[in-house]
Each structure stands twice: as structure tokens, then as C-alpha cells.
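Table 4 source record.
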Amino acid sequence: MNITREQVDALNAVVTVAITKEDYKPKVDKVLQDYRKNANIPGFRKGAVPMSLIEKQYGKAVLLDEVNKILQSSLNDYLVEEKLDILGNPLPKVTEDFNWDADDYSFEFELGLAPEFSVDLGAKNKLVKYDIVADDKMLDEQVERIQKQYGKLIPKDKVEEGDDIRGTFTNEEKGINNTTTITTDIFKDKKAAKKFIGKKVGDVVTVSTKGLFDDDHKLMDYLKVEHDDVHGLDVEVNFTIEEINTHEKAELNQEFFDKLFGEGTVTSVEQLKEKIKQDAEQQFAQQADQKFLNDVTDFLIENTKFDLPAEFLKKWLQTAGEKEMTAEEAEQEYEKSEKGLRYQLIEGKIIADNNLQINFEDLKAYTTEVIKKQMAQFGQMNPTDADVENIVARVLSNKDEVKRLSEQVMSEKMLNLFKENVKYKSKEVSYQDFIKEMYGE
């Protein structure tokens, strides 16, 4: 057997695998001998069937199977030995007049090769990393929300200023149908707010979405409108009132603080606000980190230049899935997946260049923190080490969970690498301003 490679260009090559009779005949003969030992053919004793009959009945199928095994094994070994970094899988070149009756065979495979390139993390850019702060307005709103949440709920017959109004926004044309709770002070349009005063359960209030809120993005929350549709949306929506309540706010005293945070943890309104601020900014930091990671990713894709074996990949896509694609379908699929493929290559290069690795201790430590946070959300603030370790062990016994968590650990390692090596400007913003920045508004 002989394997040779013709380099078509930097991104494409053709590998030829030549298989001789000496390579496959011993294997074919062995399989046929086994067939003969076990064959049950009328007129012959078991194990006494003439080899000529076995060869006639099974010879061609066994030949094809054994040659294919040798072909796949030798090609895979060759790619490993030559350290060829390929994209997709080798594509066999079709030979119309291939002769299986010959003694020796030659097979050709097209290869798409990964490009060589470098990644400059320190390149000049306009990236911004946001530091989101919980401002006084937000803290005051959160304190009031908590007081309402833990206060006494009192049903009412008519809407008055400050009441909670539960109901459903609808607009058939725009497909709006969302049940939510509002208060009249959420509206920028004071005329719209006044329409609710004095209304009862079952009444329908019609308002215009144009200028309804101080920020059009709030339409996403209250009406569940997609971001691309919120700006300048000018339609009428109906709000059907289903429930009216007022709250007798919980008193901000030590009993209330102890109920929320445990005895003696918080002893004043100032400490309550500081606690809210810490918790909120911890969540904000995760959102800011995700945006920074996304922005760096987009920057690297845009600024790391290299060619891909596009024609090879389009051809490979036609046969890569369960269902074959037409050339036109493969073209469309390539256009959709090219950006993702580019980042996979860039990410792989960064991981290799910076020796980023995930060991079991990394994975276990990360999973432990995730489990503790999840338990805290359900009120288990101080779980025992044994309880946590048992849950972690169960999670890490699931291959799908291990894969998912490993991706998260690597994403965290990439984020830390970017923070240390990518040049960026820091900008302190409120959460509302961050939302505007995130959506480019």
C-alpha cells in the first residue's frame, strides 16, 4: 500500500491511496474461510461447501468491505501521522470506470485544509467594557418593590393611583398577547395613565404604544414585543383588567430585615440598600461580562483575516448531513455557518497558543459553585459539604452535563484571558444605560 499527497494550493490537497492485492487478500481469504465453516447450503454438509461457491456468493461483498476497512484505517492513520489539520472530512473523488475486477486499486480523496493565521489580542480596537452600577433611583425602587412583595395584599374594586393592575395586553394584528402586572406610574404618557383610574375588573383600556413609556425597550417587558419592532411602534393595544390590588407595605424594621436576610445580618435601611446593591451589581457584572465576551468575539472574527477552502466546504456540506443537499442549499448553509466556523478556528488557535486547558479540579470547582447558587435560590443558604458533593457527583456522571459545563468553564477562561490581554476602555453606566448600549440605541 502506498499513500501520496498532491498539494493543490495552501487550502486544498488530494490524497491518493494505492491498495495492492497483497494488502487485502489475506483478510478476504480469512473472512471467506469463516463463511465456509458456518455456511448452510442445501446439498452440502456444514463446513464442506466448495470454496468456489462461497467466493461466487460472497466474494465481491467481502472484497468491498475489507478494502473499505483498509482504506479508512490507512487514511486516518496518514492524517494523524502527517499532522494534517483538515476541515470537514475527506471527500472521495468519484471514478466512473472503476474496475473492481482488477487486482490493485487506487482511490483519491479531496482534503480541505485549515488555514494558517495568527490572532492579535492586543490589536487596536474600540471595545468598551461596561461596569454597571445600581444607582440611587434603582435602589429606592427595589426597596419599595420588596416592601410591596412582603407586605399585605388588599383586593380592590376600582383602580386608584399606585395600585397593582393585573391584566392582558392584546393586539391581534401584531400578535401581542401578554399577561402582566402594571401600575399607572410606569407610563410616560400621563393621559394613558389617567385612563385606568376608576376602572373595574373586566374593563378594557385602550392605549397607544407610541410614547407610552420613557424607554421603548419597556415594550419588550410589558408587551413581549421583539427588539427589532419596538422603536417607533405605533399601534393601539387593549388592556383587559383581571385583578386590582393595593399593598400595605411591609415596615422597614429589624423583624423585617431578619426575615429577609437572617438574624442580625442587616440592621438598617442603609445596610439593606448596600445588600441590594451588592447582589444587583453581581448580576449586572455577569451581563456586562457576556457582552464584553460577545464584543471581543465579533471583533476577532472581523479583524482576523484568513481564507477558507470555501468550494471544498460547500461540496462537503452537500453530503455531510442525514439528507443530501443541493448545491444551492449547501451555498446557503455555508453562508449561515461561515462566521461560526471562523470563530471555531480562532478559538482553537487562542486555546492552543495560550495553553488553555480544563482539568477535573477546574470542572468540579465550577460545578460546586453553580450548585451552591442554585440551592441558595431555593432558600438553602448553608448546605452541608456532603450534600453539595453528592449533587456534584451526580451531575458530573452525566456526559451531556459534563460537556455543557466544560464549555462554560472554557468560556470563563477565555473571558479572563481577554480581560488581561485585550485593550479596551472601561465605562461606568446605570443598568438602563447599559440596556441601551447593548441594543445599540
